[in-house]
Design a protein that fits this description.
The structure is a homodimer of 187-residue chains.
Chain A lengths: L1 H8 L6 H8 L3 E5 L4 E3 L7 E7 L2 E7 L2 E8 L4 E2 L2 H6 L6 E4 L3 E7 H10 L1 H27 L2 H16 L4 H8 L3 H10 L1
Antiparallel strand pairs in A: 1-8, 2-7, 3-6, 3-8, 4-5, 4-7
Amino acid sequence: MEQIRAYFNNFLPLTDNEWEDFSSCFKKETYAKKEYLVRAGESCDFIAFIAEGVYRFYYLQEGEEKVTAFFFPGDFVTNYRSFLTGKPSEHFIETLKPSVIYKIHRQDLNLLYDRHKNIERLGRYIAENLYLTVAKRLDSFLHDNPENRNQELLNRNSKLLQEVPQYMLASYLGIKPETLSRIRARK
Amino acid sequence: MEQIRAYFNNFLPLTDNEWEDFSSCFKKETYAKKEYLVRAGESCDFIAFIAEGVYRFYYLQEGEEKVTAFFFPGDFVTNYRSFLTGKPSEHFIETLKPSVIYKIHRQDLNLLYDRHKNIERLGRYIAENLYLTVAKRLDSFLHDNPENRNQELLNRNSKLLQEVPQYMLASYLGIKPETLSRIRARK
């Protein structure tokens, strides 16, 4: 739980009282490898902090898996669109390794927003930050070549990335597995 | 100004007191056609509500203009990334018609956040909403064909869109002007 507090402190330090109320809303859960946190068609009414494990986002297009994101320890994982709108997720969120996460539900978070102006502000900072993340991803899709996108992913967590199957990485980069092997060999 | 209040009311109704403080921070400005609200390299420290006019976002890639967005009356326009981070904009924001806008600066908005919990919450709602907008655009780039993207743009404001030069629309859709003419002829 101290990891979560440290994460929030990057945005806005909370008082002990605020943190006590906040942290009591997080529930610990464990998942085995290849379990689903969310399936396509389900609504996602929580945000989860990853203490251990690796997750991937993917959707199915004509039966083919299209990987759109990876999440590592220290990241928050959710289908934020589904979380905000209540609409069903179009993505699967799946564990690639055994995982430990801390979940907070929408309803609890909204009550925290009502009770604490600082947590309301934290919610704004996090929404603004997620905006920047997705805007950067849009830019990366529009402008970056697969080499740059591969490097960016390696910068995030090159150790855990070694355990991700190559075909999933290639799908994320929008290239064939053979092309990814060539990129890696060149380094 | 009542247009702005109506826009905010979609998210969260403000009291007269909150609105009085908020609205006093907006400054009216007028622009001629082909003027710049923001140039690439400049930091964007404001958000502007469009009362009249049409704006486009574009950046230069090897001397070529790449159009990434259009904004119409009733929209807010800003380089939100630059607004949030203080970093220089990579985009130009240019008027395509004479325009009337209402600007609010970052500094004033932050003071409003401090003074009113409801405006702090409104800021979160708007950040969440902008997240959804940019996530939808990312999806549209990844999955939609130019026909769908053209239709989506027409749905937003087909009347004012008629005044936008065809080559800018084609750039936004990521296709050649000739291809856009063919799509339009088919309808």
